[in-house]
Amino acid sequence: MRHIISLLMENESGALSRVAGLFSARAYNIESLTVAPTEDETLSRMTIVTSGSDEVIEQIIKQLNKLVDVVKVLDLNDGRYLERELMLVKVKATAPYREEMKRMSDIFRGRIIDVADDTYTIELTGSGSKLDAFLEALDKTALLETVRTGASGIGRGDRILKV
Amino acid sequence: MELTGAEIVIRCLHEENVEFVFGYPGGAVLNIYDAIFKQDSFKHILVRHEQAAVHAADAYARATGKVGVALVTSGPGATNAVTGIATAYMDSIPLVVISGQVPTPAIGQDAFQECDMVGITRPCVKHNFLVKDVKELASTIKKAFYIAASGRPGPVVVDIPKDVTALTAKFDYPKTVQMRSYNPVIKGHSGQIKKALKLLLEAKRPIIYTGGGVVLGDASGLLAQLVRKLGYPMTNTLMGLGGYPATDKLCLGMLGMHGTLEANMAMHEADVILAVGARFDDRVIGNPGHFFTNPRKIIHIDVDPSSISKRVKVDVPIVGDVKSVLADMLELLAESDKAPNATALKAWWQQIEAWRGKKCLGYKKDGEIIKPQYVLEKLWEVTKGEAFVTSDVGQHQMWAAQYYKFDQPRRWINSGGLGTMGVGLPYAMGVQFAYPKAQVACVTGEGSIQMNIQELSTCKQYHLPIKVILLNNRYLGMVRQWQEFFYENRYSESYMDSLPDFVGLAESYGHVGMRIEKSTDVEGALKEAFAMKDRFVFMDFVTDQKENVFPMVPNGKGLSEIILAEDL
Lengths: 163, 568
Description:
The structure holds two protein chains of two kinds.
Chain A: E1 2-10, H1 15-25, E2 32-37, E3 43-51, H2 54-66, E4 70-75, E5 81-92, H3 97-107, E6 111-115, E7 119-126, H4 128-137, E8 143-148, E9 152-155
Antiparallel strand pairs in A: 1-3, 1-4, 2-3, 5-7, 5-8, 5-9, 6-7
Chain B: E1 2-4, H1 5-15, E2 20-23, H2 30-37, E3 43-46, H3 50-64, E4 68-72, H4 76-90, E5 95-101, H5 117-121, E6 127-130, H6 137-149, E7 155-161, H7 162-166, E8 168-170, H8 190-202, E9 206-210, H9 212-216, H10 220-230, E10 234-236, E11 251-254, H11 261-269, E12 272-276, H12 282-285, H13 288-291, E13 297-302, E14 316-319, H14 322-335, H15 342-356, H16 372-382, E15 388-391, H17 395-403, E16 412-413, H18 424-434, E17 440-445, H19 456-461, E18 467-472, H20 477-486, H21 502-508, E19 512-516, H22 522-531, E20 537-542
Helix pairs in contact in B: 1-2, 1-6, 3-4, 3-18, 8-14, 10-14, 11-15, 16-17, 16-22
């Protein structure tokens, strides 16, 4: 099953490679990983999307907790949560695509953030599956380039991950 | 007054009451070595290869319970240390390894003797640090010692660039360490301990299965109290030997791939297992699928949560320091009005005695040919079971584990997890430095000993009265055994040809060499060697070439599919 794991770790050089190294050394799946400092600049927040059986996920959480730099770990799937990912998509904007691309972007509540003679760049946020759906719906011949950030997640309501 | 980084290193080691630093100098650590020259707080031991420095520090830690310290230079010095670090990591041994690094501005420039030590060691350390600022040197070393020794112990690397050892800062050694990201659990959950005790007292076929955690956690006294109070059978892993007296009736010996019949069968047939500081690894329970065919309840005490339910699903997990948890458990047991089920326990012991009656460690004597098992039995007798025994890796290691009955913890020093050939001699050095008067035997093979044979020179320099017990069968014995069983006798590259004259080799270093070729000479030779209390004696026992280690649970098989010597 797909799990989104959030963690807070010391914002120190090498911290990211400890997490990445753990996943490769123990042969855990990793779908995406995002990391950036938080409002407290001594802490980084990481969101890892992974998949595995319940036993494997339990081990992943334990092994992450074991890393000396990791302050807190939360499996977002243990409760209600929100997931968002940002995607930038460059598409052909020549006839006959120009109208169609604008329409598709509107339907998915995307924004066109760059307009050139031959291309549009569309910005889209949502869950991973919404972004997948957008790519599915696009005419493949119009698709020039995509870049995705990987998912960020946060608990709903008063589910808060903080030190 | 400000101190240089090198002086700060020395002061930190002094504050940590370090007695010995095992190391080897080189360019990046010259400032530190200059500071060592000017101090008399600890003794520096010059090894002949950095791998041996780390192994010796590791053995010092295993034998004493203190943190071992090694010091190596950058680049090749650092990479040579990696095998030693990985060995300590797999067996959870507290070490601080200080490595030199090229100067900060040169990092990343492919400088002479540069390697990314923090990157290379990341998967085989508990934690590591690169110190870029001399102001953070003291607090980093303090953290390194704290992390190495607390929780589940392990090696910590501190990589120090050369310029940092020359720059100065005020020396201020922190009294304590506070880390928001690292707080190992000590005390076990009382509700879980209660649950565990209830389960234990209701058991009909209980077994107490203990590992290296009991030795590392200094919990053998409490373990013995618990085992004796309950009257339950107990077994230990390779790493747990000595955690409970091997000569005691309640001890079934070692379990696992080369464990006894009674230990493996009892483990397989038990209805309740109390696991203490052990991790159900592949050499212990064999095939986990086969292990699950017998339903049972498992209680698992471990300081490391990630060791629990990793290979085997556990019913009652207890995270905590084994000593603290066992103490709580004993207290609850004393208050409890319940007692073990005497009738069931009697029947269980009858079954166990039937297994024990098979005498699975018996072996056939063969005239004058020296049987390796016989050498170890005699070693045990001659040293009255009180020696520190270090071993290398292979058949001799298993025979030592089977035939030397360890009654005390921290006497059996071997590489259980990583299985590193070549540890034996440097391990013996580390132990002998810690206990200069003790009898230290290094049980080894002609393959393993040659992997760190250069340390004969270190032993000469420091007059270490180690006794090397070489079981020389002219084969890489364990490899040959597997090739005989599983590869139709195709002995691919497992013959040790062109062996040196070990007696002559030992003598060339100024040691005593002995070659023993007849079984009737074994006991006398051992007595003679151990009587030389101030000499290093290298004993080359020419043993039976094709002796195999039994019992054996073949790789991928279950514990009850154990093969005895008589089965073949």
